[in-house]
Amino acid sequence: MRRLATALVLASLCLATGVSSSPDGPQASPEPQPAPADNPFFKPYGTPFNVPPFALIKNEHFLPAIEEGIRREQAEVDAIINDQAAPTFENTIAALDHTGIFLSDVNAVFGALQSAHTNKELLALARQTAPMLAAHRDNIGLNEKLFRRVKAVYDQRQSLKLDREEMFLLENTYRDFVRGGALLDEGQKAELRKLNQELSLLTVKFGENVLAETNDFKLVIEDRADLAGLPPSVVAMAAETAKQAGLEGKWVFTIQVPSMIPFLQYSEKRELREKLHRAYFMKGDRDNAADNKEIAKKIAALRREKARLLGYDNHAAFVLENNMAKTPDRVNAFLNELWEPTLVKAREEAAALQAMIDRQGGGFHLASWDWWFYTEKLRQEKYALDDSALRPYFKLENVRQGIFALCDKLYGLKFIELPDLPRYHPEVQAFEVREADGRHLGVLYMDFHPRESKRGGAWSGGFRRSYYEKGTRVPPVANIVCNFTRPTADAPALLSTDEVETFFHEFGHSLATLFSQARYRSRSVARDAVELPSQIMEHWAFEPELLAVYAKHYQTGEVIPAALVEKLEKSSLFNQGFITGEYLAASILDMAWHTVPNPAEVDTRRFENEVMAGIGLIPEIVPRYRSTYFNHIFSGGYSAGYYAYIWSEVLDCDAYEAFKGKGIFDRQTALSFRKNILEPFGTEDPLAQYVRFRGAEPKIEPLLRNRGLEVKK
Ligand SMILES: [Zn+2]
After folding, report:
1. Residue 61: closest CA among 38, 79, 78, 33
2. pTM
3. Ligand 1 mean position to 9 CA, how many Å?
């Protein structure tokens, strides 16, 4: 069984598709600066596993380190250009892959903190460095002499006797240059540089506004009567949040998901549900200093201009060329095929909720802020299943142990906690990951709970990706960041089933990072294949055989009762019209923004409404992300790519059938998945990898079955 993950991956190391890690470069290389004695980036880290020395890193260390990284990478690139020898794979393509390691190491820390633990100075620094880095990337991507060398190697590729991985790197390097504007004339190149500058600033500003808007709202409750309907654990959590906000004795709910959703599920105060939900879905749309309406359309317009300059119809066509789906038409057809049965289901669900309201004499029409509340009631009525009755079995630490146990069963991995390893926040946990035979595989950081310094959602990234240095593997340092329910004074962190699923999801991304056997530093993963390693992990989360291992009551240690598991399983398709519907609506909105012919002229709110009306979205459902806080597409790397989750789901549902056929813990199947998909992830065409694992191309039926979307004929 499975449900749609609420996860969002903002930055996964395996996603990087650049020419090299972060190819960038200033106009001229200034003279080397003497290394500042106290800047930890300028000397060997000297830490266990060479992780970043977080305790020593101060805000003021980033700018000089980024400047130095830019200078060094440019010098490395210049050395390739000035090589007197004729261009070869080794002296040009492999050499280029190996440039910019210093900058990439600094940026990995800077980027991770920017998302997971930022502050005013870091935000300002991001605004300052985004255009610098964009210019640096263009200096490399638009360098004619460099491109000439790359093209010389590319043109003789058939006679070079390259192996699969080398050929893939060569073809991607060449394509990245072309897509980066290498074939444009000088005037067009100047235009492209300008567009990249503007885009770099606007996308940073967009994300900054979403964070500011999320932190700006608090629902402060002073009267106990306003807590009506809330389970004690939710009340305790709100008291804790109030305490942290300096409002001891009161109760605070925020529009961070783990705080908001339980309130929407249980609060009997309809007007307060409305207030909270409105604050959530009006983020960035309040005509204040953090409003994102103009920024969203400007980003869409600039992206379109850039795509046209590069010879594409629109931004979606530009993006999708690199994906499995290839064209906007194919994505739109795929989304429409799913949308029709989903809308039927969503309408049925809305009618059932309305019927319940009417039965209770509510006398009002179902609204978006009622959906969770009545869904919860209906779930109890139909399946006698209460979300809060499940949470005690999903203590965070137990879920973590469950995932470790799964990784042991499938791959023989061992996880050793490293309590003394440097970390960027005291709540972060660190583990060494070892192979069955004890060899070091990599390091994994995990950062679980919301903070004002952290953006919403969940993602997987890292501080170093693996590659081979003179035949020796440089092991990766991976990172998982979530926004899960916090522990309270009386109880540990008890996760919702959505959170459990998200944890498995992000862990799957990390496994791809940890298992990688890529020789080179560049990865090129089709965005719509990138969720295969993550989403396949979700399939195990609620398997009874695995629940028996980890889902133990946090007080009694009792394993989750079979009856409860059965209810969970029976209700797996419940509310699927809503879950799939809000996701597909956001995917369709994303595609609309990146195919519309005149984004500069639209009115953001009206545009969104028209797109949603066009597909017949019912007003009781708000798209998973509205335009003004759609970080994935306006601040992260998922533009014209939010559909990728459900596209990948065709792959993961079909792939999981292979496990089900042999037993869900089958070591042989796991080994094949590891060898064919995870180890070479991003170094080969994803469909070819998939076919090697599965023996055939993926079929859509397992996905339709899993979501209850089979068209009844
Ligand atoms: Zn993901």
Report:
1. 38
2. 0.91
3. 5
